[in-house]
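Tokens as discussed.
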């Protein structure tokens, strides 16, 4: 199989790069100073679509948030 060694080497190099990127992302997410854990709240938004037909629904999940306070990136858990 000609070129197999170089193909396997390339796959290993790509895998190493991916692992380093994932580790850097994990380290960055912990280094941002956001507290982990805490109470979560879910808010549902319903409205008329402006670029589709029907009704749009959004669900915002936040952590360590008090209604009325300013949202920060540390509060955001998900938005779907």
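Sequence:
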């Amino acid at each position: 199989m000609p070129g197999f060694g170089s193909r396997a080497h390339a796959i290993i190099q790509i895998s190493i790069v991916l692992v380093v990127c994932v580790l850097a992302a994990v380290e960055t997410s912990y280094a941002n100073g956001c507290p982990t854990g805490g109470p979560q709240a879910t808010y549902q938004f319903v409205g008329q679509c402006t670029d589709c037909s029907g009704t749009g629904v959004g669900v915002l999940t936040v952590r360590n948030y008090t209604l009325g306070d300013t949202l920060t990136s540390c509060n955001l858990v998900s938005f779907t």
